[in-house]
Each structure stands twice: as structure tokens, then as C-alpha cells.
Design goal:
- With about 140 residues, the protein is mostly helical.
- About 60% of the residues lie in helices and about 10% in strands.
- Strands 1-2 form a two-stranded antiparallel ribbon.
- Helix 1 packs antiparallel against helix 2 and helix 5 packs across helix 6.
- The longest helix is centred in the first third of the chain and has 21 residues.
- It is elongated and about 70 Å long.
Length: about 140
């Protein structure tokens, strides 16, 4: 029971650190995303999870310092390798894509100085490579547009 209470106190300190760092009444997305990230990553048994939870339990690490760390610091070596591989595949498919839907005949290419350029949105190319495609708001704009 004492371990459960200490664990709950550590979780409360971490949640308060995320709240203090990221909460905004206008936009809760960053706050919610960070809470989901910690909930997911700290459930997985790993060295990182043990270090973070131990630091929170014995109060040797502040919640603010944990929240300020890069998310990659919490991932296992296996997860980092998967993430790097996915990123490399996405970039390769985005860069090697030959379909360039946008064109401007009045702009000069900075690399070869040729007049007339074609391009593709890198974000759109990455979304297509993931198979998700653009979201409607990225195509049509928001409600006020």
C-alpha cells in the first residue's frame, strides 16, 4: 500500500509538472499529447522508466526537468532505431518522389540557375508516404478562412 501511495504521489508530481509547463486553455493538444506520451512510455519496463520513476519517487529529479527533456530520451534503443528507420524511409520516399504538382515559370532555381521551378510540399510528401494523406483542414483551410 505504501508503494502504491508513493507511486501515485510521483505520478501526481509528474502530471503537475506537465500541467505547469504546457497547459493552455486555448489549446490542450500539447498538454494531452505529453500526458499520453508519459502514460505510454512509463508503463513499459525499461532502464529509462526505472530511472525516471526512481527519481520521482525519491524526489531526486524534479517533474519540470523530466518534462523539459526531449521525448527521445525516454525511448528504448529499439524504439529509437525504429523511429530512425521510419524517418529515413519517409525522407527517402519524399525526396525521390517525381510528381511535383506545383510549378512557377518565373522563379529561378537557386541550385542550377534554371528559370522555372517545380516543387512538392515536403509535409504533403511525408503524409503521402505514411499513407495518411493531407487532412481536410490542410487542403480547405479552417472555419474562419
Amino acid at each position: 500500500a505504501a508503494d502504491a501511495e508513493a507511486g501515485q504521489a510521483a505520478a501526481d508530481r509528474l502530471e503537475r509538472g506537465v500541467f505547469d509547463a504546457l497547459y493552455s486553455e486555448e489549446d490542450l493538444r500539447d498538454y494531452r499529447a505529453k500526458i499520453r506520451f508519459f502514460a505510454r512510455e512509463l508503463r513499459r519496463p525499461s532502464e529509462v522508466q526505472q530511472r525516471v520513476l526512481k527519481g520521482l519517487l525519491d524526489c531526486s529529479v524534479s517533474a519540470a526537468s523530466i518534462v523539459a527533456q526531449d521525448e527521445d530520451d525516454f525511448l528504448s534503443a529499439e524504439s529509437l532505431a525504429k523511429k530512425a528507420k521510419l524517418r529515413e524511409e519517409l525522407m527517402k520516399s519524399a525526396v525521390t518522389e517525381v510528381d511535383f504538382p506545383y510549378e512557377d515559370s518565373t522563379t529561378r532555381c537557386p541550385a542550377c540557375d534554371k528559370l522555372g521551378v517545380k516543387w512538392k510540399s515536403l509535409l504533403l510528401a511525408i503524409a503521402e508516404a505514411r499513407g495518411s494523406g493531407p487532412r481536410k483542414c490542410e487542403i480547405w483551410g479552417g472555419g474562419g478562412d
